[in-house]
Amino acid sequence: MAALQNSKPGPMGIIRDALGKDNPVLVQVLGICSALAITGLVSTTLVMGLALMIVTSLSCLMVSVLRSTIPYRVRLMVQMMVISVFVILVHLYLRAYHLEMSKALGPYVGLIITNCIVLGRCEAFAIRSKPLPAFLDGLANGAGYALVLLFIAVIRELLGGGTLLGHSVFPASFQPAMFLKTAPGAFLTLGVVVWVVKSIWPQTGAAPNHEG
Amino acid sequence: MASTTSYTLILLGSILANNILLAKFLGMCSFIAISRSMRTAFGMGAAVTFVTFCTTLLNYAIYTGVLRHGSRFLPAVDLSYLSFLIFILVIAGFVQLVEMVLERFMPSLYFSLGIYLPLITVNCAILGVNLFMIDQGLIYDFAQTAVYALGSGLGFWLAICLMAGIRHRLREADIPLPLQGLGMAVIITGLMAMAFMGFTGMVN
Predict the structure, then answer these.
(1) Does A205 score more than 60 pLDDT?
(2) pLDDT at A14 over 80
(3) A85: nearest Cα among B165, B84, B182, B20
(4) Which of A22, B46, B154, B191 could form a disulfide with A17 if both were Cys (CB 3.0 to 4.6 A apart)?
């Protein structure tokens, strides 16, 4: 976030930063609330990542378009409403065309509203940027989030259930580590992923000091 | 009619076995960010518990009274697709109201709690409890919902205070550099979640 405030990177820069050194989940510690709950299966994670990309990019676009008309004092409220509307649209679409998926995701689709990534990008970038960069920034941050989630989901489904997108990968003698499917397993997987990422790229966010 | 046992079960279940943070992954952002000192963690836990309890009851009343199909005041119209929007507006509005009331009448409490209040609006735990309430199609009645909301808030309070205590001890520990900060916090949370899983058999 700090990098974006200091300089004005081009479209490619925005996308690169959001996927890598400003990755919302790993570096900015945003949005891990829902990052873990739905990573038990790759299929639910794909849908969730896609939903978040749609909501973040469109909300950022909308906030950016409205930025000169939103009164400063109530801007958080307005941003929340914009986000809620897009989340409702996604929720209704899933309910209408993918009922099974909607049931599997449960209330976590609705919880995109309070996913700090969406509000964070609206507040930190979209509210004072032109529509196109805001849209790209939202899309890229959504993609950065989806990427990490997908990585965790692959680990959890592959080792925890021995399957990938529902197809079994390992020979029948493989003993899946059921533990990875449980809540503690999700936490430990994320912890280890963060550890590995920071060991390989030590410069990515020394200490997380973002609140919220 | 629900008996006392069922209330106790709901309360213990939501505090321990289905802890909103350790089993449902909600409220992680503030949990990681605020749990550095016991004082702030305690304040945050108290504020979350209070807001969760009040907004869940408010939203229960709105949902059963107006939004859902066959509701008390608008039985013919199904407005439940608006629940996300209404719930988050109620939470945001309530937080704003509490902030103004505290500032006016209890300045000392406002200054110790005030900084957390804006953060609470985007705390997933609160919206989460509200959404879990309707997710299974309103399995609880009003009193049970109240107990569930209270238990969930207390569960968050308990978890964040425990975490602050552990992190206090960790200041002396020699943690590998890449693991410091987020990595360590998440792994500790995992270990805590593992401990809390032990309560599952107790309630079910």
Answers:
(1) no
(2) no
(3) B84
(4) A22
Domain count, chain B: 1
Sign of the Cα pseudo-torsion (A125, B25, B39, B166, in order):
negative
pLDDT over 70 percentage in chain B:
94
Instruction: Please report, for chain A, the start and end positions of each structural domain, with discontinuous segments joined by +.
Output: 2-145
Task: Tell me the pLDDT tens digit for each residue of A126-167.
Answer: 888 889 999 998 898 888 888 888 888 888 888 887 778 777
Pairs of CB atoms within 8 A across A/B: 151
What residue numbers bound the domain in which B110 lies?
23-195
B204, part of any domain: no
From B108's Cα to the closest Cα of chain A, the distance in A is 23
Residues of B within 8 A of A190 (CB-CB) are: 186
What is the interface pTM, i.e. ipTM, of the complex?
0.80
Residues of chain B with pLDDT under 70: 1-2, 112-116, 136-138, 203-204
CA B92/CA B86 separation, integer angstroms: 10
Look at A32 and B132 and tell me if their CB atoms are within 8 Å: no
Residues of B within 8 A of A88 (CB-CB) are 81-82, 84-85
Q: Which residues contact A45 (CB under 8 A, 6 or more apart)?
A: A38, A39, A146, A149, A150, A152, A153
Closest-CA distance, A160 to chain B, in angstroms, reads 16
Look at residue B6 and tell me if it is in a domain.
no
- Answer whether residue B28 is part of any domain: yes
Which of A37, A88, A190 shows the shortest C-beta gap to B24? A37
Nearest to B58 by CA among B133, B137, B153, B152: B133
* Interior angle at CA A134, CA A129 and CA A135, nearest 5: 155
Domain contains B177:
yes
Residue A1 has pLDDT above 60, yes or no: no
Q: What is the mean pLDDT of chain B?
A: 83
